[in-house]
Amino acid sequence: MPLELAAAAANAPIYWENLGLRPGIDLGFFTLRWYSLAYLAGIALGYWHLTRMIRSPGAPLAQRHAEDLFFWCTLGVIFGGRLGYATFYEPSLWSDPLALLSVWNGGMSFHGGMIGTVLAIAWVSWRGKLQFIRVADYIAVNVPFGLFFGRLANFVNGELWGRAAGPDVPWAMVFPHGGPVARHPSQLYEAALEGLVLGIVLLCLFWLTRARWRTGLLVGVFTLGYGLSRFTVEFFREPDQQLADFAVETGFSMGQWLTMPMILVGLALIVIALVRPPHGTALRAGKTAPSA
């Protein structure tokens, strides 16, 4: 009997509620949500690392451009992420302007945030007469910071859980609003692939190789890497309730459909970057970044 009880306990799912996680820090008059802190941490760490990157030879931007990018990319992520969520996942928000603007209630789309970030980079590049793709290379290296913290925040909030898991998945979890079924903690899968693994790959390419001299290579690796990671994890992630029928009818989730173009674009950018000659020899010889 003791052995049977031990075996049953070993096969029992993990209950999210027993982990002692809370969605935020209660300050009495205000609850500081981990999701908000995740955005702040990702943006702050990305900006700090970007300021280190532009000190390397041949950087396509100066400190003043990094400051502009910090401001405009932050707006692009927030507004693009929210508008993208309303467009791709919850169209009903368009009929309620107050709900649409209530970003603190959750509901952000990576693909919308990506579009907002691309527009922000284009704006800063145009104003500063910078090379858009080379600036995008430097920004792409820092995006996994935000993805990592954001997915961890999703897990702490007990949201965006995965599909039902079989008994052969010992780390399966029962989430508060996911019913009594043990599910894949797909938030952690995404944090590992989109944030940790992709981030390490990009950091190694930038600091340990000459990838930054290949215009478009870093942003291509990010785009392809994110697309493949997200497409794969979507097989373990429960589709949003309002899009469950869409996933059944089309065979793929909304997230997978949105990442398919990213995979193709990423491949194209990588091929073009490898076929073209590296960035100018003058820069490779040690030319400094634009003057501040």
What is the CA-CA span between the terminal residues? 74 Å
| Structural class assignment | mainly alpha
Strand content: under 5%
Low-confidence regions = 3-8, 281-286
Summary, kept brief:
The chain has helices at residues 2-11, 34-53, 63-88, 97-101, 110-128, 132-140, 143-156, 186-208, 217-233, 244-250, 254-275, 281-284, and strands spanning 14-15, 24-26, 31-33, 173-174. It has 292 residues and is mainly alpha-helical. The strands form 2 sheets. Strands 1-4 form a two-stranded parallel ribbon. Strands 2-3 form a two-stranded antiparallel sheet.
Descriptive report:
With 292 residues, the chain is mainly alpha-helical. The chain has one domain. The protein contains twelve helices and four strands, in the order H-E-E-E-H-H-H-H-H-H-E-H-H-H-H-H. It has helices at residues 2-11, 34-53, 63-88, 97-101, 110-128, 132-140, 143-156, 186-208, 217-233, 244-250, 254-275, 281-284, and strands at residues 14-15, 24-26, 31-33, 173-174. Strands 1-4 form a two-stranded parallel sheet. Helix 2 packs antiparallel against helix 3. The longest helix is centred in the N-terminal third of the chain and has 26 residues, at 63-88. The relative contact order is 0.13. Mean pLDDT is 89; it is low at 3-8 and 281-286.
